[in-house]
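Running this now, will post back.
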Amino acid sequence: MSSFIDYNNSKSFYVMSWISFIISFVGMAAGLIYLEMAIAAKAFFTMTYLFSISACFTLAKVIRDKHEAEKFVNKIESAKTEKFLTENTNV
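Update: finished.
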């Protein structure tokens, strides 16, 4: 009665994600290097950029963990319901 759904990403999606991340990171770093601005301002922008990357990874992990926990709880509830129906069905 239970069904298996594969939520894994394809290898090409995984590679594309890393390539886009690396390109955006290198582009921002090059922009900061060649930006004509005081070193203190460059340092501030670098710090905020790195903090935003960290925040994005943390947010993605939190969302993934919540999704995994909900899947686990739903599996338990489904198993309890299936057991209840099996035990209380007159066949």
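The chain has a mean pLDDT of 84. More later if anyone needs it.
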